[in-house]
Amino acid sequence: KKTSSGTSTISWHDTGLEGAIYELQESQDPNFGEGTISWPYADTGTSVELTRPPGTYYFRVKVTKPDHTSS
């Protein structure tokens, strides 16, 4: 997501998997390589507002299922 205002709101919904862990990842690399930042969120869908300097940022949410596999 490209932002000129510096503020982005990232939202996702609960998958309905009890015990799932959600991990919001942010990177300036579209391949999410070096410099990727992650924040864990437990068992919920949510909305997060982030303020960054203007630029291009990429966000994704990784879901780890209760059996510890990712999707």
How would you briefly describe this protein structure?
With 71 residues, this protein is mainly β. It has strands at residues 2-3, 7-12, 21-27, 37-42, 46-51, 55-56, 58-64.
On the 0-100 scale, what is the average pLDDT? 81
State the helicity in percent bands: under 10%
Could you give a short account of the major beta sheet?
Answer: 3 strands, antiparallel
Distance between the termini: 21 Å
Task: Please give a structural write-up.
- With 71 residues, this protein is mostly beta strands.
- Helix content is 0%, strand content 51%.
- It is built from no helices and 7 strands.
- A 3-stranded antiparallel β-sheet has the order 4-3-7, with no helix packed on it.
Provide keyphrases for this structure.
single chain; 71 residues; mainly beta; three-stranded antiparallel sheet; two-stranded antiparallel sheet; flat
